[in-house]
Design brief:
Length: about 230
């Protein structure tokens, strides 16, 4: 397994609780839109076994041509040891990345795509939307729906509705509005539904989509095959 040690080159305060850490891009490190990686802090591999409390799965919120690897995460006041250490890291300090996998690339099947996310889950979709703005071939339309009860919505300069770009962005701050909207979107019986959020959020969405006649093959999750099968086998 190759471990890439790299430096933080910028820290962006996206909202009061959400930061993006931009990391230098090691020369042979590549990824596609929708990739996630293992993001690790100094000391994680000092012992015989990796110290899991110093490692988290994180989506890469940038595209390669942005020349930095973006990691976007929420750090609440009450947080894990991992986030407490991360909060205190500064530009120039090192972090590690390993095992980068892409499960949620854009599917170019001449269909409408619905990106359904909770909170910072929107970070997974940022590179998909940027990729779509550059090449929209074989995609009819993209609609993003994000729920964040904090109302401090993320990436609103990118997630902005635009008829010319065939793109709709919606932000809601409560579950009722969110699920009403999902029901409406699910009337598109041929759409592709991407889901990013906690497992509980994903299961609730799958249940509702199934009730509305959406099939498992129309649902895309950032999970490896076995987990995907288990979640979709409701
Ligand atoms: C494929 C994949 C991609 C992912 N991508 C991302 C991503 O891009 N960005 C991202 O942020 N996460 C992402 N995650 C989730 C990520 O891996 C972490 O699980 C998540 O960020 C929570 O981090 P944490 O465990 O350090 O807990 P925290 O975020 O610190 O805490 C989780 C919750 O527990 C509460 N809590 C924690 N510690 C305490 C305490 N001591 N006392 C009271 N309450 C406490 C917090 O307030 C919070 O509500 C991804 C996961 C997967 C599987």
């Amino acid at each position: 397994m190759q471990i890439y040690w790299t430096k933080i080159n910028q820290i962006i305060e996206e909202t009061p609780e959400i930061r993006t850490y931009l990391l230098d891009c090691p020369e042979d490190f590549t990824w596609e839109e929708g990739a996630h990686t293992h993001f690790a802090l100094k000391g994680f591999n000092d012992g015989d076994k990796p110290n899991r409390s110093l490692v988290r799965h994180m989506s890469i919120s940038t595209l390669p041509h942005e020349n930095s690897i973006g990691i976007t995460t929420r750090i609440r006041e009450q947080c894990s040891e991992f986030k407490a250490i991360l909060r205190n890291l500064e530009v120039g300090q090192e972090v590690a990345l390993f095992k980068t996998i892409s499960n949620v690339q854009l599917k170019r099947e001449n269909k409408n795509i619905y990106l359904l996310s909770a909170g910072v889950g929107l970070a997974t979709f940022r590179p998909l939307v940027l990729e779509y703005f550059e090449h929209d071939d074989r995609i009819n339309h993209i609609h993003s729906l994000n729920i964040d009860s904090s109302k401090a919505f993320l990436f609103t300069h990118i997630f902005k509705s635009s008829p010319e770009k065939k793109f709709t962005a919606q932000f809601v701050d409560n579950r009722q509005d969110y699920y009403n909207e999902v029901e409406r979107l699910a009337t598109d019986q041929d759409g592709l539904f991407y889901l990013v959020g906690s497992d509980e959020f994903i299961l609730e969405n799958i249940e509702l989509l199934y009730e509305r006649g959406i099939k498992p093959e129309q649902i895309i999750l950032d999970k490896h095959e076995q987990q995907r099968i288990e979640l979709l086998a409701l």
